[in-house]
Amino acid sequence: MTAVSSTIGVIGLGSMGLGMARSLLRAGLPVWGYDIREEVRDAFVTEGGQPLVSLGEGAATAEVLFIVVVNAAQTEAVLFGSEGIAPRLRPGTVVVACATISAAAARRIAGRLAEHRVLMLDAPISGGAVRAAAGELTVMASGPEEAFQRAETALGAVAAKVYRLGTEAGQGSQIKLVNQLLAGVHIAAAAEAMAYGIRQGCDPEALYEVISHSAGNSWMFENRVPHLLAGDYRPRSAVDIFVKDLGLVLDSAQEAVFPLPLTASAHQMFKQASAAGHGREDDIAVAKIFPGIRLPAAANEEG
Q1: 3-hydroxyisobutyrate dehydrogenase-like NAD-binding domain: from which residue to which, for each copy (predicted)?
Q2: Domains along the chain with CATH numbers
Q3: Residue 288 known to be catalytic
């Protein structure tokens, strides 16, 4: 087997992680990538990346390691599970933890990594798959200055904006939860607005055109409604992501005894869509919960 000499690793080559890996490659950086799906690893090879069949193969070579998985449980499994790589990482390695997790989980993971003399940036990301592929993500990061310095080139390759939000883990994740609160509420509101307009006889295309140029517009309305208009529910970000993320927001608010009425309503909408079988569809599929309307169909479904 060829020895792995790359110094940047990306674990999780999904819609976000693969785009980030591509951006790192485009910047001329040596990158290895890992994903449990063989077809994804094969695709990574065709783009000049170096795939890993097992994490143990390359963990010790990483100077900067992006972990782009779904949640805290997956992040901890990669690092501390039965085949966790934390003990194999060299002292001074920077783990860039990109999953949307609670602030408490970020602090816990950073503390466990510190026991191995490994640095961590609590660095959730925003921008979607398109911006990930373009190297234009927003990174909301907190962690020690040394970690920022060591990861500076890699972060610059994947992000248009890197916000330094403090020296302690948890601060980045908390701001990401505020972002997810807004994103989830805006998607739910966009779905409700489109469903209401369709029910009242508005032409969906005209409705989108007018609202996207009016005061009622939002980034999420403008970004997600075209998926609905095309009848295209391939998951760029899935319904179940917001079941999870808004759940994290509500859990943290519960601990603080703080009311979040709009978040709670949006969370119930996403849960209803998931329970109806739409959990793995694009998050705008939350519009499918509204009765008595006919949403636009994909081109190959018309007729």
Answers
A1: 170-289
A2: 8-168 (3.40.50.720), 173-301 (1.10.1040.10)
A3: no
